[in-house]
Design brief:
Blueprint (H helix, E strand, L loop, with lengths): L10 E6 L5 E4 H13 L7 H4 L4 H11 L2 E3 L5 E7 L4
Length: 85
């Protein structure tokens, strides 16, 4: 039977244009996504428009995606990583 730690997503490596890679906790990534989304409420992708709060939008991205388009030449990507043995 697989160990449940194999499916936990407690940490993420985050890749962002013109920035070094970062390791963030789930809460830190949620906060980063909320900050980005709060500035883009007039120009949200259709799948995010159905959510009434920025927190719900960020949670949806965390659960279903691994990137967010920030415009031409810019990117934000995140991948779950396991930091423990």
């Amino acid at each position: 039977m697989p160990d449940s730690i194999m499916y936990s997503e407690d940490h993420y490596v985050v890749l962002e244009s013109n920035q070094p890679e970062q390791f963030l906790t789930t809460a830190e990534l949620q906060q980063k996504l909320e900050s980005i989304l709060s500035d883009r409420q007039e120009d949200l992708p259709r799948e995010l428009q159905k959510f009434s709060t920025v927190s719900q939008q960020a949670q949806y991205l965390l659960n279903t995606c691994c990137d967010f388009d920030l415009g031409p030449g810019k990117y934000l990507q995140w991948y779950a990583v396991r930091l423990e043995k």
